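Table S2 (text version). Query chain:
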Amino acid sequence: MSTMAQPRVNQDIEISRVNDALGAEVVGLDLSVPLDDATFENLREALQTYHLLCFRDQRELSEEAQVAFTERWGELEVFPEADKTKTANTIYNVANVSADGEHLGPNDHRSVYQKVNARWHTDSSYRYIPSFASLMLGIEVLPDEAKGGETEFSNMLLAYDALSDEMKALIEPLHMVHYYEFGRRLFPELPPVSPFEREAVPPTCHPLVRIHPDRGGRRSLYFTTNAGNEVSGMSLEEGQKLHRKLASQASRPEFCYLHRWRPFDLVMWDNRVLLHRAKHYDMARYRRVFRRTTVAGEVPFIGPFSRTADSATSEG
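Corresponding structure-token output:
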């Protein structure tokens, strides 16, 4: 495993790695006020190095300030789910609590949505242009004595590197089908998608192998287990068998970091190279409330047979 370089840091903040696979903790930074350009560039470099940043103790971070910080990274993504947003369609309510503060039962469809998130995924994979990064603020988190409720992340750069040459050759030309409605197959009790949602996010295909021009052409796996399990170019049975193998690869402990939330952690992660999933907890007993914003992607990502793949591999 390669050693991660330590990024430059502003003297007023500390950035320290939390796990060999991914992740760094940022202490001493108040994101409720605008950042100077030098500090922001330090954060940009740190995200590129560690793929995930946890900003501790952001209790003063208002919705407006979170949106403003997110916009420093790029255009905000708009969510299609009307009942999962609150004051704006760029704010996503990840919670088993309603917008009015009601603790929802585990069988309420708004809670069941969280069970979909308990499977490995990368946000907005069901879009033609997937997202760049997600930012999530822990407003109500589980108490220390509670079991579960963490968010687990897996580094797909490392997961790809560890594949056998035979497996790399197998998946090189393959695509996975991603579609927003797949959660309804997992949990039929969920209400059907609306005509607007179906039109806004039709099914799409992405290569199983993603090439990263900003990382010297390194490759990573790109798949989910909550937005599909079918592989183009294979029979349904063969594709699902391969999909299960990739999910098992993502779950290997040496690629993963388990984040135990503290109150008012803001965690930002790079969806291009990480998968994540929520860990099971007692939904009937505990409230869990997060506020998420997402930075939209800019272009369709590059696979091994994309027209720009050769130039991407040579960059960096």
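Notes on Table S2: Residues 14-314 form a domain with the Double-stranded beta-helix fold (CATH 3.60.130.10). The two ends are 20 Å apart (CA to CA).
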